[in-house]
Amino acid sequence: MTLPPTGSESLLLHNPLFDAEKRWPAPDPVVWSFHRRMPAYLATTLFDCPELARKYGVKRVLVKAETQRLGLPSFKILGASWATYRALCDHLGFEPEPWLNINDLARRISYLKPFALAAATDGNHGRAVAFMARLLGFQCHIFVPAGTVPARIHAIQNEGAAVTVVEGDYDAAVARSAEEASDRCLVISDTSWPGYDVTPRRVVEGYTTIYMEIEQALRSAGIPDPDVVVVPVGVGAFMSATVSYFRSRAWKGALVGVEPADANCVQASAAKGEMTAVPGPHSSIMVGLNCGLPSPVAWPRVSTGVDWMISIGDHRARQGMQELASAGVVAGETGAAALGALAALYEDASAAEFRERGLLGPDKTLLLIVTEGATDRGNYQAVVGRPPEEVGTLLTLSR
Ligand SMILES: Cc1ncc(COP(=O)(O)O)c(C=O)c1O
User: Fold this and answer.
1) Which of 62, 167, 222, 392 has a CA positioned 20 to 30 A from the CA of residue 365?
2) Alpha carbon nearest to ligand 1 atom 3, residue
């Protein structure tokens, strides 16, 4: 199957590769234990948003707000921190246990210095790797694609990292970062390539903490599992973690992945039946999702575990930012994609099949993962009409 060309309207695909019988190993609780030893660890908030539930005609809309995670404005530090730790253990050849906190860990491994971390990024992952390097007292070199907005570059530099702008897109930045690998530098990439897949798998494992926290919050509030879960998709690593959690057991709900209209590589790959590239330029304001090729490490879980894939235009992301702001949640452009997808599923002609199957019925509980806070303050104010601190929880915007 080949998809029609995408424009600014949404496009919905009922994933032909979905396999309802397939089960994946459940997340390892050791990952969550690791994150609880990070400085200032707190579970992020799971918002119950009755006004959004009313608007979209469903029983409940839950929003997991990854807008402030370990002091950074996105969920990415969960993957970067766990993957860095595991890569260090592999480099050392042993686990530097017992350590109480990151300062203690940094002291135990200080003999490695001078030592560095490197990564490519569209913003959030690189900032998270830079943050880890700073905590561990390492140097850091981050590669960003041409056109990365200055606010994102400055946020990475403020973590003490050197930033190089690579001529080309995200995939070019990934290729350049791979050249940094040496016995004094670990490359912490969230996407894989032939011969490099251990660390990207660790990144995926790191993200599963989000679902352990959600499970705990739902259990303690006596709320059953959600019926529909909507997750933003770039290379698919985060969705792969989502599949690990929901498809490790007999869950009857539906997983929906959302991508930008001109960077819908996971949707296009599912339609074609194999991984396929969607060439750039990718210019969506949902910058964290501007990816042209799924991660090979993520693809097996994503291709078989996701029920629906929707691609949306930027106007839906803006709408998501505004509606989340009304609910008191500060979501950046990428972070708001899940609510933008809900709006498209609710309204667009292309999503009629989704509605006809009753997935937005009055008995349904929806879970939206908001993966990012206001990382571009100027644009946030332009879209929402108010600065982030007037909307909800005050975010760590810059250091
Ligand atoms: C804020 C945000 N949300 C979602 C994603 C998508 O994650 P993945 O690339 O693992 O699909 C990214 C990726 O950079 C991101 O930065």
Assistant:
1) 392
2) 371
Residue whose CA is at the smallest distance from ligand 1 atom 6:
234
On whether both 254 and 169 belong to a single domain, the answer is no
Q: What is the mean pLDDT of the chain?
A: 94
* Secondary structure (H, E, C), 198-245: HHHHHHHHHHCHHHHHHHHHHHHHCCCCCCEEEEECCCCHHHHHHHHH
Q: What is the domain extent for residue 46?
A: 11-74+206-390
Kindly give the distance from the C-alpha atom of residue 57 to the centroid of ligand 1, in angstroms, as a whole number: 28
Q: Is the pTM of this model over 0.90?
A: yes
Model pLDDT, residue 394? 44
Structure confidence at residue 1 as a pLDDT band (50, 70, 90) = low
Domain membership flag for residue 399? no
**DSSP 8-state symbol, 280:** S
Q: Which atom of ligand 1 is nearest to the CA of 79?
A: 10
Cα of 273 vs centre of ligand 1, distance in Å, is: 23
Q: Give the pLDDT band of residue 122 (cuts 50, 70, 90).
A: confident
Ligand 1, atom 14, lies closest to the CA of 288
The average pLDDT across 1-21 equals 81
Q: How far is the CA of 51 from the centre of ligand 1 (A)?
A: 27
> What was the pLDDT predicted at 149?
87
Instruction: Please tell me the total count of domains within the chain.
Output: 2
- Measured from the Cα of 298, ligand 1's closest atom is 10
CATH number at residue 246: 3.40.50.1100
Residues designated catalytic: 76, 122
Tokens of 206: 């790191």
pLDDT digits (tens, 9 = 90+) for 53-64: 999 999 999 999
Per the domain annotation, does 5 fall within a domain? Answer: no
pLDDT band for position 78 (50/70/90)?
Answer: very high
Confidence grade of residue 193 (pLDDT, cut at 50, 70, 90): confident
Q: Are 362 and 217 part of one and the same domain?
A: yes
Return the exposure string of 120-147: e unless at least 16 CB atoms fall within 10 Å of the residue's CB, then b: bbbbbbbbbbbbbbbbbbbbbbbbbbee
What the block records as the tokens of 364 is 């349904």
> How far apart (Å, rounded) are the C-alpha atoms in residues 24 and 291?
25
